[in-house]
Amino acid sequence: MRGPPASTSAIGRPGRQKMAGVSRHSGHHGRYGPVMLAEAIAAALDRVNDPCSIAAGRPLSVRRMGLVRAWRIEAGVLYVTFAVTFPGCTMAPHFMEAARTELLKIDGISAVETRLDTDYVWTPDVMVAPPVVMRGTPQAWRMTRAD
């Protein structure tokens, strides 16, 4: 499987809301223009949650977590490159398949090819999501009440 080249620009970086990877001359976009198609792709990726963020009780989409490195479209085929939060992640195949399923629902996308960028080192600063604000007292259940 051939994926996007490493030089394809990333999406979802902080301060950068521009969707990268849409070629304005890449062919049929179904009922969408290039900008609408980029928005539809972003919305589909926002419907796929990162399994580890769910387990941590702070569900975030793979896009908002910064796990979508890049994407491009060629002749109706969408190529998406993903990253993981740490090298030993075993959940990548699951969220990549969930993303593929969501992305195939978009009119104008005939196929989705996904790949994992194993050389990329993820850090929290690539998250699109605002920082999580913790409320309450951490581990309040450990505190004992003085009577």
TrEMBL record:
The residues covered by the MIP18 family-like domain are 39-112
Q: Which domain of life is it from?
A: Bacteria
Q: In which residue ranges is the amino acid composition biased (Polar residues)?
A: 1-10
Q: Where is this region: Disordered?
A: 1-27
Q: What is this protein called?
A: DUF59 domain-containing protein
| Species the sequence originates in | Sphingobium algorifonticola
